[in-house]
Amino acid sequence: MSKTASVTVIGLGPMGQAMAHAYLDRGYRVTVWNRAPARADALVARGAVRAASAGEALAANELVVLSLTDYDAMYAVLGGADPAALAGRVLVNLTSDTPDKARAAAAWAAERGATQLTGGVLTPPSGIGSPDSSTFYSGPREVFEAHRAALEVLSAADHKGEDPGLAALLYQLNMVMFWTALTSYWQAVAMAGAHGLKAADILPYAKNALDLTRFLEFYTPRVDAGDHTGDVDRLAMGVASVEHVLHTATDAGVDGALPAALLGIFRRGMAAGHGADSGSSLVEVLKRPAA
Ligand code: NDP
């Protein structure tokens, strides 16, 4: 077991509950606190200690795992506690939010004598406790290493750097790809359904379409070199293709908001003079907010 054989978990939504259960499974002494106390009941029945307040939960252990909705919730919870309770604590903040908020929270913690390790958890609650799941961490490496074994109870632990915003950034990059890709699948299912096809009918094609590995490997070195040569694809072709998608959706009475949004981005690329360039030129368009 790690140097820290005891841990506090604050925030017992589905993630925090899974984390506290994982620590109990591994024999840790676990102190828990949640705004709605009933969410701790099953954990207390397994031997967890219910803290009477967030301050008491902080006082119980050096290592404090935070699993809250966002950083505003963190300030609501920790800001009300006696500031002295934060001194010397390692706050493993597995709350997702923006990189800037993670950096501000790390500074806020440091002003109170605590250290934040920011985490970005890449698994749903069902994956907590498995070494096949992973979590990005950033913050002081020596603090990460000192608590590595305790962090690895939750998932594989991958330290990415000292900047407390980095883990949050990598998590958000993961999320923008995850949500847009998954929503593209929901769009395809809706369009298929309008033609009498079920999700199961399109599963093989969906798996193939969403495996973008060969495209990522092809475009990555070009994009990093600023090379948007239109030798294998052209943005003008992409515009025509997305128009076909939009019309296939609307002709079937299906919502067209997603392809219309795509078309808007593609047309901005055309307006910027990228019609004969690769669709990768959209990276240049997306670097700036729409006018
Ligand atoms: P939930 O939003 O379901 O629960 C979060 C916790 O935050 C609850 O304990 C809730 O308390 C507490 N909370 C929210 N607002 C306040 C507040 N103002 N004051 C005090 N407590 C508050 O989140 P999850 O458990 O699903 O996720 C936790 C974090 O992990 C989130 O940041 C999420 O983005 C991230 N995450 C979640 C994944 C998932 O699949 N669920 C996957 C990867 C990351 P109460 O019970 O009293 O409402």
From TrEMBL:
Residues 7-156 form the 6-phosphogluconate dehydrogenase NADP-binding domain. The keyword Oxidoreductase applies. Residues 163-288 form the NADPH-dependent reductive aminase-like C-terminal domain. It comes from the Bacteria. InterPro entries: 6-PGluconate_DH-like_C_sf, 6PGD_dom2, 6PGDH_NADP-bd, HIBADH-related, HIBADH-related_NP60_sf, NAD(P)-bd_dom_sf, RedAm-like_C. Keywords: Oxidoreductase. Belongs to the HIBADH-related family. This is NAD(P)-binding domain-containing protein. It comes from Streptomyces ficellus. The lineage of its organism: Bacteria, Bacillati, Actinomycetota, Actinomycetes, Kitasatosporales.
